[in-house]
Specification:
The structure holds two protein chains of two kinds. Chain A is an all-beta fold. Chain A is 0% helix and 53% strand. In chain A, strands 2, 4, 5, 9, 10 and 11 form a six-stranded mixed beta sheet that branches. Chain B is built from no helices and eleven strands. Chain B is mostly beta strands. Classes of the chains: A mainly beta, B mainly beta. At the A-B interface, β4, β5 and β9 of A face β5, β9 and β10 of B.
Amino acid sequence: TQLLEQSPQFLSIQEGENLTVYCNSSSVFSSLQWYRQEPGEGPVLLVTVVTGGEVKKLKRLTFQFGDARKDSSLHITAAQPGDTGLYLCAGDRAGTASKLTFGTGTRLQVTL
Amino acid sequence: DAGVIQSPRHEVTEMGQEVTLRCKPISGHDYLFWYRQTMMRGLELLIYFNNNVPIDDSGMPEDRFSAKMPNASFSTLKIQPSEPRDSAVYFCASSPPAGRSSYNEQFFGPGTRLTVL
């Protein structure tokens, strides 16, 4: 059973378009992290959200944590080719002693 | 400070051979995680250590897989004997002590791409 489902699985868009990636679960998380992974490299942490309803911005990226802390979204404005990669959400469930639950991933390709 | 270091970056071996993957975590981090990533199954946690002690190995697929952490700066993941279905990218990640990071943020190495023929 996959605890964190991401949608869409794949997304191919042109430079300048906006997009939203969703991360959904039936479980409550203490915090939720978003990572980006480029080809041939390991995931790199982008942001951590910890409060229900929290919104964080990182340049053109906007991250939101659901009010009930069961879901999250990542919105990218005016996508650029450098945004291409695999986006992973990861949840920290209380009582799991530092173990993260990773989502299924969204593979984004941004073309010129 | 150097990031997580993994070696080798690529490994090609034949079925039945022993494979050893190596990891050096970030200095000062006391959590170390081993993951496996495939297109079909995504990123799966295999095992993790805290202060060199294995905490949860429920993700280790079978007895052919074993992991050790003899000291704070080194860990190995061994597959013996290897099988073609073990082909994947294996990542090591480390995390600082709970007092320094409240949210279990993890720092990943570049991975080892394993191909078993």
